[in-house]
Amino acid sequence: MVMTQIRKYFGLSLLLIVFFSYNSVYAQQQNNITVNADQGSVKISKYIYGQFAEDLGNGLYGGIWVGKNSKIPNIDGMRKDVIDALKKLDVPDVRWPGGCFADRYNWRDGIGPEKDRPKRVNMWGQVTDSNQFGTNEFLEFCKLIGAQPYMAGNVGSGSVRELKDWVTYLTYPGDSKLANLRRKDGHPKPYHIKFFGVGNESWGCGGQMTPEHYANVYRRYSEFLPNYGGNHIFKIASGPNGADYHWTKVMMKDVGYRMNGLSLHYYTIAGPSWRHKGPSTNFSENLYFDGLQKAMKMNEIIQRNSTIMDEYDPQKRIALVVDEWGIWTDPLPGSHPGFLRQQNSLRDALIASTTLDIFNKHAARVRMANIAQMVNVLQSMVMTKGKEMYLTPTYYVFEMYKKHMGATYLPLHLNVENYTYDGNSIPSITATASQDSTGNIHLTISNLDPNKNQKVKIDFRGVSVRHVSNGMVLTAKSFDAVNTFDKPNTVKPETFKDAKLDGNTLIINMPSKSLVSIDLN
Ligand code: AHR
Predict the structure, then answer these.
(1) Which of 54, 201, 399, 417 is catalytic?
(2) Residue 94 in this model has a pLDDT that exceeds 80
(3) Atom of ligand 1 at shortest range from CA of 267
(4) pTM reported for the whole predicted model
(5) Helix or strand or coil: residue 363?
(6) Active site (annotated) includes residue 201
(7) Coil, helix or strand for 374?
(8) Whose CA is nearest to atom 9 of ligand 1?
(9) Tens digits of per-residue pLDDT, 190-217?
(10) Does the Cβ of 201 fall within 6 Å of ligand 1?
(11) How far apart are CA 413 and CA 410, in angstroms?
(12) Which residues contact 507 (CB under 8 A, 6 or more apart)?
């Protein structure tokens, strides 16, 4: 009797266990996203899609500047192939000349007749810098690709006067020695310069300052940044090194509204440490997972910096400017270690999409960001060698995301499966939805799981969707797939058709390790 009851009890328990485990497995296999189209209130600033071009390695020389007498087709010394490619991205702004380089640069070295420009040592790589690509070349480059310039001023080794004079040379419309020098250099009209950085990484290569010291230095330098004519400068202070929240607190408390933006730098290191960052090619799943997990840290870093900023600036008048971000790997074997030349894989494209999703989600505070860097350096858009060029997987992410620029962010609710590797988990799906001024909805979704295709159901609230169009997918056979000079099209977007509307629900079947972009109306 007792035995029968025990058997019955265990039989029932087993049934219940099987039932609940079946249900939880079933529940886990659902990837549900709700797009709250009726709750969109924040515009995604187009400047989140900015770029960074430092005078480092072949970022400028060889990558953009080849000189007017080069056999490589060029416009006033600047590569036509690179310009044409960048034009297609609608790059909103380019930060120049650094980085660490900015705090060692004297703008006067890069103006006037090219033959008279002094040769200097570029500390980053310890090579000779010809200064052929200077202020006016950079501003012409910006014009050619349709971007706004973001000038990074020298605070670490320069002077207040140097910075003030640079602004006067650039923007003063009247009669003055410096404005006349600009005219002599062939630019009668003043430039419109909106973004100016006051130092770079002032906690490190920009002067090894404490935040308390830098806050005072910033107040002094920024006081002498003049607004001439109709030009109004958006002043960006050097901000924290990632999770250095004390830096942010001091800047908000001691500087406050004297700055328009506070910068933030955070790099993804897929590997054990800064000294051993891991290769950019031929890596295994541990570095794929590690890269994505570290990229996702950006969310916490922005969140915690924003919380501090909210205390002092609840109306969010000061922008958080993530003006250096991206994956930083070991340099390519055989390349100059100081030139920071690395390959760019499908993993890196997914790091970019994941990071852009985080920026878009925080668009109320993050109003500018600049990926490091634009050409040949770190996580670049374009790679060049001699006359050859190819576009990286990250280039295509920027191309697929550009419809979000200036659109209204639509808050998402994600209930998605995890991607687990070696006992650690991250969400397998990340996404952005936005609505442009014509009412069209743009969706970008990444499936980060490298081993599993994913079915994703997307419900739209507060809007009726009837048509799906422009589906594109970026994926490849392996997560470490790269483009090369010989095979430039290994990782390239293709048309995507596996998306169907069922009433107001979109059902997408996503390949593993892929990014899908889609429009709805
Ligand atoms: O992007 C490369 C370097 O990284 C920049 O010069 C510097 O600001 C950062 O440490």
Answers:
(1) 201
(2) yes
(3) 4
(4) 0.94
(5) coil
(6) yes
(7) coil
(8) 99
(9) 999 999 999 999 999 999 999 999 999 9
(10) yes
(11) 10
(12) 455, 456, 457, 458, 499, 500, 501
Tokens standing for residue 337 = 């270690």
**343 contacts 480 by C-beta, under 8 angstroms:** no
CA dihedral of residues 103, 108, 113, 117 (deg, nearest 10): -60
Contact between 226 and 167 (Cβ < 8 Å): yes
Nearest to 319 by CA among 370, 363, 267, 253: 363
Q: 324, 388, 399, 494: which is the annotated catalytic residue?
A: 324
Reported as a single tens digit per residue, the pLDDT across 294-331 is 999 999 999 999 999 999 999 999 999 999 999 999 99
Query: pLDDT of 217-238, one tens digit each?
Result: 999 999 999 999 999 999 999 9
**H-assigned helices in 146-223:** 160-171, 177-184, 211-223
Structure tokens at 145: 């690709």
Instruction: Calculate ∠ Cα 494-495-496, nearest 5°.
Output: 110
Best probe residue, ligand 1, of 52, 95, 201 (max atoms within 8 Å of C-beta): 201
- Measured from the Cα of 101, ligand 1's closest atom is 6
509 C-alpha vs ligand 1 centroid, how far in Å?
39
Are the CB atoms for 408 and 393 separated by under 8 Å? no
Q: Cα(153)–Cα(361) distance, rounded to whole angstroms?
A: 30
> Is residue 145 within 8 Å of residue 76, measured between CB atoms?
no
Strand partners, 30: none
Looking from the CA of residue 102, the nearest atom of ligand 1 is 6
* 324 catalytic residue (yes or no): yes
With DSSP H G I counted as helix, E B as strand and the rest as coil, what are the percentages for the chain, rounded to 5? 35, 25, 40
| Contact between 429 and 446 (Cβ < 8 Å) | yes
Q: Which residues contact 33 (CB under 8 A, 6 or more apart)?
A: 412, 413, 414, 415, 416, 429, 431, 445, 456, 457, 458, 459
Alpha helices in 80-176 (DSSP H): 80-87, 135-145, 160-171
Mean predicted lDDT score pLDDT of the chain = 95
Contact 364, 318 (CB under 8 A): no
